[in-house]
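## Example record

The block below lists the input lines for one assembly entry, exactly as stored, with component labels intact.
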Amino acid sequence: GAVVSQHPSWVICKSGTSVKIECRSLDFQATTMFWYRQFPKQSLMLMATSNEGSKATYEQGVEKDKFLINHASLTLSTLTVTSAHPEDSSFYICSARRTSDNYEQYFGPGTRLTVT
Amino acid sequence: AQKITQTQPGMFVQEKEAVTLDCTYDTSDQSYGLFWYKQPSSGEMIFLIYQGSYDEQNATEGRYSLNFQKARKSANLVISASQLGDSAMYFCAMREGLGGYNKLIFGAGTRLAVHP
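Predicted structure tokens for the full assembly:
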């Protein structure tokens, strides 16, 4: 159990367009989901924390109007990169906390975004 | 503010030997959790081991053990009997508090190469 999926696994979009990434907990309910960004050869940086039914909490320096997060249900959170630019090209990873777990976050496989 | 430091950008080890990956942390919180994750080239984050700040015994999971020295604020990962499949990036992470809703802060990572 505790499987998290992301869709798409990779996406290429043109500069100026928007792209939506989905994060789903397949076999558990996730009250809280987290979105991370990872540039090549670097560590994971937390972008935002999303709680079902409420507004996401963004980390300092992350533009909330550019990275729209919606956590509409206990199994789905979406990250929309609006007006994407080449510098937004990165590996985006989500994780989900199962309500019944005390400490563990379950990570999705990641989405590689390339903006041309 | 909490901080995770991994001072070894890269390590290599001979197959079947043990290797220690270093991790030090800084936090003013009394309750915290320490994690190690493995990230192969595919990008997925694989949970390896967890240590809670109040756990008196060092955590072990198969070939992985966590050498937890609370006074020195270190949480080194020991991999015994290295295998070629252990070649990957390894990230140490910390969460303040014991609830799963608290965010994870990751270290810079250590790239491990296992040589035959």
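Chain B touches chain A through 22 residues (CB under 8 Å). The two ends of chain B are 41 Å apart (CA to CA).
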